[in-house]
Known about the structure:
By secondary structure, the chain is α/β, with parallel strands linked by helices.
Amino acid sequence: MNRIDQRFAELKAQGRRALIPYITAGDPAPEYTVGFLHALVEAGADVIELGVPFSDPMADGPVIQKACERALKHDVRLSHLFEMVREFRSRDATTPVVLMGYLNPMERIGLEAFADQAAAAGIDGVLAVDMPPEEAEELGPLLKARGLASIFLVAPTTSEARAATICAHGEGYLYYVSLKGVTGAASLNAADVADHLAPLRRMTTLPLCVGFGIRDGASAAEVGKVADGVIVGSALVNRIAENAERPEAIPGELKAVLGEMRQALDAMSAA
């Protein structure tokens, strides 16, 4: 069983919600990323999304755009990300890692080579932001043959027919984008999220995880009431940016942000 499926099965049996942090590989410099990954696990991460630095991250707001810029100053590439995950796996064989990024870097090394290298590194799923299921005919089977999940986005503006197509192709979990706009957007309405998740639950048994707009324990708990997992990116990447000149402080900052969310989610589950 894929590590993602195994983790969600465990969480379901425990009645708990998944906490899924995102960081950009190589931000603020590549030598720190593996330590950050372990810090996220220590703070309660159930799955980790690791972003591929890209020069034109169209779905991301200024916070993650700048994270990509910081990483690209060090020429961080997919090959470096694979090495980071291999090093992470030397100490952690169980936490699922999802590679999140854009198709261009994957296509540059060739989709089959990408799938081979991702599987060999210990990656469990791939979320290509700009690859809708209709365009996944080549990459999807390559990932599936190697035991990797193809993860897709669903937005508030997604039609019911299109959502059904996405659900039919999705694996691992569905990433529901809670807000219209880019990552780091401001407000989050849990009732609105619940209204959009309800029809998705009739279409799929995949876990429904919600990202965009989750900033603290309170917003994580609100979303956790209606979702199977919460995804947090900009709140963590902000802490990395604020401490880029003193990276030794970043693991503690990440633990503070994620730890508050973990406590809030667990308290909600226990209530």
